[in-house]
């Protein structure tokens, strides 16, 4: 049994050794900011506004443009990073169209200031309910918190604003939450929600050989139902339920930093799934805090476009690519990080060529438990990742 | 509605004479096909003076006053002269033979009066060149006609005339016993207006400074007229019986002044709506209309976005004839400093009548038709009340769109300012960084956070209200200065 287990994880152990060797020692994580620094940066914004008004000029807030790819550079060891002095958007206080956003930013700055000063925390939802009439929608608060994070050049967590986690964990993992409560994913019969205060997690204990990031909650639940974590024990599974929230990404990074075990991604064989995987691996618009949010060592386990042919997935399970899919695929192929991933490029070219996509669920057409009994075990045993 | 002061009919006669001359000039210009820019320039001189005289009305019996005593009457003499390119060639060439007959028909000899002083004419010709047309008339008035007010009505009429004939300098001189009134009307800022199927006209869109609060800031010296949609008018039977036929329509042109387009955040408050009517020859109507005065009752202020109630002027107030001034009575509301700076604006609605009758082509008949039209104007407007009111409602609403947007923008900005100020103040008050607090207070030149709060609000209002965005269509400088009104 133990020999079988050793054989099962032989490729994984090999990968781990390789990863540990390649970890660059000269990439230093950014200096941790203390509360005083955060407060000072907020005070500078206020002082700037006051000084501008005193000169009889209209105050303007300058926000780095988070959605512009021209503002981003790529480092293979870190992922996507924001370039200093990049393109910006301005929010004017003398324009009726933008003055409301200006006010919203100031309101949230004042709330954050109080949170940091008192070392307390609030969720984005709490901030929204502080003044629903001013904010209008939750999304406005979400965007502005990220904008403030970019503007002040501080990680989001230093603002003491917690995002609601939507991810889940299960497997061989236990840790202490920031409030002192103990979490044991193994003993729990159901998946455990990802902590909303990942930075506060301590005493992580796990003998897992790998972490499996699962794109969709449906697949995650299916694997739990199939008792995957016991069959391929020891391992950890995590899902962000689609587009991952910051806490889920922080958790993946934390697992990597602490356990330094291979991390695999199981996503649909479609451009959307590939993009989600890239976010875990290389980051996104929150690129100025890439160090804490990305795991460049993530490997693509499945579902690969080449798997569709190799496994002879039935044709009726294959879905033609839409215009939007093709557009996204084209955009992904132009991303700066793809150049360092020729095998990924090859898979994406194959998808573009065949003009079809497929969900992980398509494997159930081959056999009901094909995913957990055959596909994943074989991938893990024989190193079927790229 | 009659004038409450002086001899109503006599004052009306004077106005009618001036109207008649102006109609003649305008129609002759059209007949000659005057279209060039320069051809619209020139001068018009209107001189009025009176002489004291006691005489019999019909050479048989004297005028008697209320006590039965014989009453003396005065004569008011008037001369209207036209000079310059705008009336060149009127009495020359092919026009001359018929022209003399036309003048005789329009201005019968028994109504003709003496010419004015040569000195008066010299100054005029020196400025505008030889006189191409000179009509002199006399009007009998009651002795009590020596009032202060009648020159006011003539002056107001000439002012309205100059509004739509901006390239013509109008010299008005009125000598009434010991008083002398001189005024020159000239458009400083002119705007060419071309309406469909009508001749181009030059409007005087000169605008006054938008209040003392503008200070030394740049401002637009002119207005921007907005033509509205033409409204067809039906001619009532009574007017048709008198000989008024053809197609009649009305086209409004709206002018909001002063222009504040370059200050997008400046709030505005409408003070009054001025309505003036112009006949087909572009000559202002002099007859009063109750219809226009009562517009305030029929217009929906709420739909127009007017912050107040439209009134009509007290009939005992002195008002120019022919148009209407509808003041806006502001609604009383809570006082507060929670508003951006604002300026007062007035809206002028110029209503141009357009008449087409293929069977009327002789100048005399055209002039007569226009006089008939004016005579029945009240009935015409009343007959088309719904259409005219709806059209004016539409035009006013359209032109006040910008006003409504400003109002909303002002509210939005003020509301945001409250949040910005209170948020900034919250941070300053709770900060333990003494340098930061000191820097904030010193920048705004205040001693404490209470003062800072006030100073921030005032600065925000000041900076935002007067945000200046230059517009190519605005007039940055006035074109020329004209002498102001003088009384000797």
From TrEMBL, chain A:
Keyword tags: DNA-binding, Isomerase, Magnesium, Metal-binding, Nucleus, Topoisomerase
Q: What is this protein called?
A: DNA topoisomerase (ATP-hydrolyzing)
Catalyses which reaction(s): ATP-dependent breakage, passage and rejoining of double-stranded DNA
The UniProt entry, under CDD domains, shows: TOPRIM_TopoIIB_SPO
Q: Give the residues annotated as active site.
A: 129 (o-(5'-phospho-dna)-tyrosine intermediate)
Cofactor or coenzyme needed: Mg(2+)
- Where it mainly occurs, coarsely classed, is nucleus
GO MF annotation terms? ATP binding; DNA binding; DNA topoisomerase type II (double strand cut, ATP-hydrolyzing) activity; metal ion binding
EC number from the UniProt entry: 5.6.2.2
Its organism's taxonomic lineage begins at: Eukaryota, Metazoa, Chordata, Craniata, Vertebrata
Q: Name one GO cellular component term.
A: nuclear chromosome
**Family membership noted in the UniProt record:** Belongs to the TOP6A family.
